[in-house]
Specification:
By secondary structure, the chain is of the alpha+beta class. It has twelve helices and five strands. A five-stranded mixed beta sheet has the order 1-3-2-4-5, sandwiched between helices.
């Protein structure tokens, strides 16, 4: 009922806006009769309300997509060539996939294996991870840990840590992260010290500034070629988007 009422108000508003000049010339009685006629028509043809909602949603989606495309274009340098984010897959790939992710995000964890499969199966995708912790202190801690590993030990060590954190169960406390580092042959003390450094803080600040510029409020958020996808997308959907991007 609430949706129907909102749609009815929308229809009346659009009708009034379209004929605003004519309505101004109407008497109060004529305006009342006009409004009653619109109401009667909608009551007799309620399917119009559903049609109006569909049209409005389609227009909103199209407008949002156009806005997202423009934001991607305006921030392309920071998205695709920031100089500090991990880059994997095929470095010469014809399509770049960027994922804004949070290690404590359930849908990021769900997407992890599918993103890996997408890159492996395609063979021509350049992949970038953007550390974007937004789910509390544990998210920030794990991102600081991963960034510190990359800065100290390079991209291969980062990828190993990234994969481990995506499948990590339980709280990422100091003991857990130190054990994870040791299991990967990394010295924990230096990593823990690096986590609090200005260099790590600057990466997180830059990523969050970029997220604000792109109006990102949730994870995962993907940029695939020139498109931005807000939320989890199944493997088949990602493959279709990549195909569409290549087709132009």
């Amino acid at each position: 009922m609430r949706a129907a009422f909102s749609a009815l108000c929308l229809c009346l508003s659009l009708t009034a806006a379209a004929g605003a000049e004519g309505l101004t010339d109407m008497t109060e009685a004529e305006k009342a009769a006009f409004g009653e006629a619109v109401r009667a028509y909608l009551l007799e043809n309620p399917e119009v309300i559903a049609e109006a909602i569909t049209v409005l949603q389609d227009r909103q989606a199209e407008a949002e997509a156009q806005t997202d495309d423009q934001m991607v274009e305006d921030n392309a340098g920071a998205i695709f060539e920031d100089g500090y984010s991990w880059v994997g897959g095929n470095p010469d790939g014809d399509i770049t996939v960027v994922e804004f992710m949070d290690y404590r995000c359930g849908y990021c964890k769900k997407a992890h294996a599918e993103v890996e499969e997408l890159v492996k199966a395609d063979g021509n995708i350049r992949l970038i991870f953007k550390e974007f912790p937004i789910l509390g202190e544990e998210s920030i801690t794990t991102s600081r840990f991963a960034i510190a590993v990359q800065q100290l030990h390079g991209p291969e060590a980062y990828k190993s840590v990234h994969d481990a954190l995506m499948t990590l169960r339980g709280a990422p406390d100091d003991a857990t992260l130190s054990r994870l580092a040791a299991d990967l042959g990394l010295e924990p003390t230096a990593i823990v010290a690096r986590m609090a450094s200005d260099e790590v803080t600057q990466v997180l600040a830059a990523n969050h500034a970029l997220g604000q510029a792109l109006s990102i409020s949730g994870t995962p958020t993907f940029v695939m070629g020139g498109q931005m996808l807000r939320g989890y997308v199944e493997l088949e959907g990602m493959m279709q988007i990549i195909a569409d991007e290549r087709a132009g």
